[in-house]
Structures are given as C-alpha cells and as structure tokens.
Amino acid sequence: MGKLLAVALVGIAAALAAERLLAFRNRLNASREVAPVSLPNCRLIKGIEAGSEDIDILPSGLAFISSGLKYPGLKSFAPDKPGEIFLMDLTEDNPRAAELRISRGFDLASFNPHGISTYIDRDDTVYLFVVNHPHQSSTVELFKFVEDDNSLVHLKTIRHDLLTSVNDIVAMGPDSFYATNDHYFSDFLLMFLEMFLGLTWSNVIYYSPKEVKEVASGFYSANGINISPDRKYIYIADVLDHNVHVMEKHANWSLTHVKTLQLDTLVDNLSIDPHTGDIWTGCHPDGMKLFYYDPENLPASEVPFGLLAMSVPENCFVQIVLVLRIQNILSEEPVVTRVYSDNGSVLQGSSVASIYEGKLLIGTVFHRALYCDL
Ligand SMILES: *[C@@H]1O[C@H](CO)[C@@H](O)[C@H](O)[C@H]1NC(C)=O
Ligand SMILES: *[C@@H]1O[C@H](CO)[C@@H](O)[C@H](O)[C@H]1NC(C)=O
Ligand SMILES: *[C@@H]1O[C@H](CO)[C@@H](O)[C@H](O)[C@H]1NC(C)=O
Ligand SMILES: CC(=O)N[C@H]1CO[C@H](CO)[C@@H](O)[C@@H]1O
C-alpha cells in the first residue's frame, strides 16, 4: 500500500512537472521564427557594448541609457564592470553615447542599473530615477542631472519592504513613482520556482515619502511601466503573459484596470511617443533564447534553466530582436505593427525601443544599441 501510494505520488508529481514545463515553455514562447523587417540607415552606437537595458528621452532630445545590468539567469558581456548611465544627444547628426560621471558618495562598484525614468520639475531641474540591484537587492536611486557638467548628482537611495524585486519605474514627481516588482521573491531559486509554477504574485507599487502602497497585482511578471502623454493612464507590460495592461490613474494614486491588449510575443520595456501617444516596445519573441544564451557556460546558479534545455533546438541560442508599435491602445481596434526585426545578426535581445523626431533607438538587455531612421 505504501509503495503504491509512493508510486502514485511520484506519478502525479511527474505529470504536474511535465504540465508546468509545457505551460512555462508556452509562456516563454519557445522556438518562434520572426521574419526580418528592416529600417533605413541603422547604425550601432559607439561605446555601448554591454547592454542598453532601458532608455529615456527628454523633450530636448537628450537620451539617458542604462547599461551593464547583471541579473541571475541573464547573460552579461561585462560581468566584472559596474553598470553605467550613458547620455546621447539625439539632435546631433551623428550622436555618440558618452558615460555620465556620477558624484562621489555613491557606491559605484555595486552599481547595477535596470529601469530608468526621468522627471522634469517646474524649475526645469531634471531628476533621473534608476532601479539598482546592488548585491542582488533592489533599490531606487535618485539623481539630479547636471547638464553643464555631464554628471549625475546622487540625492538619495530609496529602499522599502514593498520594493522587493524592482524592474522598472515611472516617475510621478521629484520623489514619487510607480514601480513594477517582476517577481514576488528576490531569491533566485524561489524566483525561478515562482515563474515555473506560473504564480501571479508580481505587482505594482506606488511610492512617495508619505505613502507606499500596492496599486495593482496578479501579474506573472510585471516589467515595463509607463504613462500616457495626458498622464491619465498607466501602461504595464506583463512579460510572461504577453500583454500590455492599461490602468487608469486616480487622484489618490490608486489604479483601476481599463483593458488588456494581448500580443503574441514577450513584451518588455514600454516607451511612449509624446506627440502621438503610440506605445513602442522592444520584445523578446522567444524568452527561451534570452535565458539560454550560452548553454555551455551556465553558472551553477543557473542550473534550473538546464531543466528547460530539453528539446530546445540548437539555433535557439541566437537572440532575436523585435520592435513593435502599438497605436490607439484605448480604441476598439488598436493597431500593432512590427517596425523592426532582426535574427540576431545585427543586434541581440531587444528590451526597449524609443523614438525621437523620426528616429528609433533600440536597446538590448546585454548587447549593443541601434539607431535607425523611421
Ligand atoms: C481612490 O480613488 C478612486 C477613484 O476616485 C476610488 O474608487 C478609490 O476607492 C480610492 N481609493 C482609496 C484607497 O481611497
Ligand atoms: C506564443 O504565444 C502566443 C500568444 O500567447 C500563442 O498564441 C502562441 O501559440 C505561442 N507560441 C508558441 C510556440 O508557444
Ligand atoms: C540572419 O539574417 C542575415 C541577413 O538577413 C543572414 O545573412 C544570416 O544568415 C541570418 N542568420 C541566421 C542565423 O539565420
Ligand atoms: C525597465 C526595464 O529595463 N525593464 C525590462 C527591460 O527588459 C529586460 C529584459 O527582460 C528586463 O529584465 C527589464 O526588467
């Protein structure tokens, strides 16, 4: 009887694991082919080699780019180098990326920047919010941008029990923001289990010095977050659920769900065209490829991903790039266009796409950045 029970339990566990594996592979949308779409005059940005994870462009055409993210399970081309923030002037004919100097008193050695967001105050001061993962933790760093000096002055480090696994932020004021937690757990193994089991424990937090609260929940993995030009709606990308949620923002900062736009790809960071309100996003058409960059060289901490290596075709280690434009998301029939796509030969693993005056800037999780005419 004991043996029967044991066999039955093992059988159930195996069936459950197989079912979860299939579901997980589906969420990662493994093994998809994407037809190439090209744009004129694309060139790689000099100086960016180790990621351009998030991009934020000021109305003046100055673009901030965060680079050098190190994240469990994801490839890094500069594992020993701290992260950096680059600045590019998109009004120049041939813009170059230059690293911004960061003021003393900030621990640069552990700087591991992720999502960024800018806020321009009434007195024209530009604040830069940077999600940071020093020593695998999550903080939000607040900087003041000093243009004359090409530098960032560190103002404060924000930590909070509700900011557990922060991915992206969108600034609401000089010291307030919405932030996505891409997972409930911050420990890597638990985070993996959470994804594998398909738990929807990821959420969105509102932070201000006076009040911190959860304003949305129930995501597989809330990633990119941004705001409509009229500042009425918040857009949230759920990278594992392949969709973008539109939430209405209220005076008390709470959010209510308006609609969900389902896409057939993993959507990541969202950026908004300030003139048209179009949403631009870099996508991972195949999440499996993002994780399996270098199968021969998986660190021990990434062994769980080995579990999923089963039946992943060899060519899956190439990183596809896909940029989508979403027009009229609030209408009955939003228009989704594939604006740029590459099989990984030019650029690998797009995470964000931002536009400025007819130009497209495409960022990647751990690779280079590309600048094209539209
Ligand atoms: C916030 O405002 C919305 C809309 O006015 C309201 O429905 C909601 O109950 C408020 N929430 C709280 C916590 O006060
Ligand atoms: C990828 O995701 C889309 C939408 O969720 C789904 O329709 C499609 O079948 C998935 N493809 C694979 C290969 O799992
Ligand atoms: C990717 O596309 C380029 C040109 O479009 C082609 O030369 C190359 O062979 C392709 N690579 C793969 C792995 O398909
Ligand atoms: C703000 C931000 O950078 N969000 C996401 C961009 O893309 C990468 C790749 O998945 C995510 O890890 C980031 O969280």
TrEMBL record:
Post-translational modification: Glycosylated.
Highest taxon in the source lineage: Eukaryota
Entry EC number(s): 3.1.1.2
Cofactor: Ca(2+)
Single biological process term from Gene Ontology: response to toxic substance
Residues annotated as glycosylated: N269, N343
Signal peptide region: 1-17
Membrane topology: Peripheral membrane protein
Annotated disulfide bonds: C42-C372
Protein name: Paraoxonase
Organism: Chloebia gouldiae
